[in-house]
Amino acid sequence: MRTVLGILSLASLAVCTAAPFLFFSGRLGMDMYKTVLLAASVAYFMFATAWAARKA
Amino acid sequence: MPKRIARLTAQMDSLYEYDREPVAPGKLQSGWKFAGLFAGEHVAATEFVIGPFFVLHGVTAADLISGLLIGNALAVFSWAFLCAPIAVGTRLTLYWYLRRVAGPGLTLIYNVANAFLYCILAGAMISVSATAVGLLLGVDIPLLTDVLPNSTAWVALTFLIGVAFTVMAILGFQKLSKFAAVCSPWLFPIFVAGAVAMLPRLGVRPDFSNFWEIAQTRIWTGVPTPGQEPFHIWHVVFFAWFANLAMHVALSDMAIFRYAKSWRAGFASAFGMYPGHMLAWICSGVMVAGINREMNPGLMAYEAAGIAGLLAVVIAGWTTANPTLYRAGLALQSVTPNWPRWKVTLVAGLLTSVLASFPVFFMKLLDYVAIYGLVLMPVGAIVFAEYWILPRFGIPRHRAERLGLTINWNALLVWIGTLLFCVALPLHLYFKWLPGYFVALSLYSLLEAAANRKETPRTANAR
User: Cβ of B413: how many Cβ atoms within 10 Å?
Assistant: First the structure.
């Protein structure tokens, strides 16, 4: 389970990183980019916090 | 008076008791642990201010890149060649080593000075966070030239945020530290996202073909904002070098590197300087150019990354103010005997919250960072001279410990004398510390040599 949470955390970070490049290349609008970034950030905090808690 | 000092220093010693003994060999850590630590610690709320200031001071793109490459390399070398070898050699924190060198009285003074400097730094972080919360609440953010608070709403906002941070630091410092470790990897993509999202607004084409041209003409133009002094490559070099002067040259990070297997772990600081400072300063510089150079970290982050950007500003401020408040509380506790930790952290937090309402601390953050490093630098020079120079000339070390001195007056004289020398030096604030460092090294070595000459006949007569 911890590994899955770790992978999901990393995937959320990857989405955070990819979203602005998709906006920059014109494949996402500004509003959609900001929404995706926020959603991926929230997902990251959920998964990473759970991952860190299991580590302890 | 000596009794009071003895009581205060005894109180102070008890607070630091847990790290009194040199680190045991079984607790030593590999270099990669330090790489992770540095990468996580060096992206803070202040990065949202420092990068934009380089833009506002009219640094050119070429000066910025080359200045950051050189300055951060010098910072890494300072950790690797100054701080880590002494930490590995002594396996002690600066606190305990300084106590042997300068005496408990001077260590007390150092602690109190450090506490006030920490409070101001935490105050600047609270101010940065307030720009994000203020955007949501419609509070006017102070102007670049403001020294005093611009409105009652700003005072109330910074104070409330400061109190909230303080209460959280009191209630759960350890939990917040763990939360900060979770936040750090997320802050990197947010900085990158904010910068990339601003590029179309600045006119960068999707194939990046005109990026360098835009960087030179729209971002780091070489033209300062009215009222800001022009910066050149050496300002950038020195700023990147002294941004963490208290940690490397002034040796605070002995507390970290005493756990290193080898002094080479000092090079791991590169992970905090290049992916950390350099990347974050460049990204926040792009972001501020995208909002027409307005110094408003909250607005900048919101325009570039939406609500996630605002969250980043608040969380970066919160997670970095948290350990800063804790350290300030720890340092102040030494002069407030019998006060519990919560009470002293509350006092430090309230002081910090009041300071946070003064925009001068974050609008003049670069100068404050310079002063912070400058004030503590002579202590690093004293310890360096004690560890490396005195033995080379056959001068016995740790005079305060050997003679049971409360204060090594030579060390105090060097500290004050160096600062006076630096104040009088007709150089820009950023460049004063370097000559000051060599003055402190030389002066301390000479004074200790003279003290040793006086001491030797006395010892011989005693025999």
Answer: 13
Tell me how many residue pairs between chain A and chain B have CB atoms under 8 A apart.
63
pLDDT of residue B334: 65
**Which of these, B21, B19, B93, B73, lies nearest to B256 by C-alpha position?**
B93
CA contacts within 13 A on the Cβ side of B244: 27
pTM: 0.89
Tally: H helices and E strands in chain A: 2, 0
Taking contacts as CB-CB distances below 8 angstroms, the residues of chain B near A29 are none
Average pLDDT of B11-20?
59
Task: Among A5, A16, A33, A44, pick the best mutation site for testing chain B contact (most B Cβ within 10 A).
Answer: A16
CA-closest candidate to residue B380, choices B15, B97, B75, B115: B97
Q: Which residue has the tokens 């060096």?
A: B42
Residue B342 host element (H or E) = helix B341-356
Q: Is the pLDDT of residue B136 over 80?
A: yes
Strand-pairing partners, residue B221, are: B60
Closest Cβ opposite residue A37 in set B179, B200, B305: B305
Over the stretch B93-124, which tens digit does the pLDDT of each residue have?
Answer: 888 889 889 998 898 889 888 888 888 888 98
Place of tokens 């060097």: B414
Contacts of B275 in chain A (CB under 8 A): none
> Nearest chain B Cα to A27, which residue?
B206
pLDDT of residue B8: 65
Min Cα–Cα distance to chain B from A4, Å:
16
Give chain A positions within 8 Å (CB) of B303. none
Least confident range of A21-35, B193-207, B299-313, B353-367: B353-367
Using the structure block, give the residue that is written with the tokens 């700023």: B239
| Cβ B170 vs Cβ B162: under 8 Å | no
pLDDT tops 60 at residue B463 = no
Residue with token string 């680190």: B23
Tell me the chain B residues in contact with residue A35 when contact means C-beta distances shorter than 8 Å.
306
How would DSSP label each residue in B228-247? SPP--HHHHHHHHHHTTTTT
The answer to whether residues B202 and B290 touch, using CB atoms and an 8 Å cutoff, is yes
Contact (CB<8Å) A30/B178: no
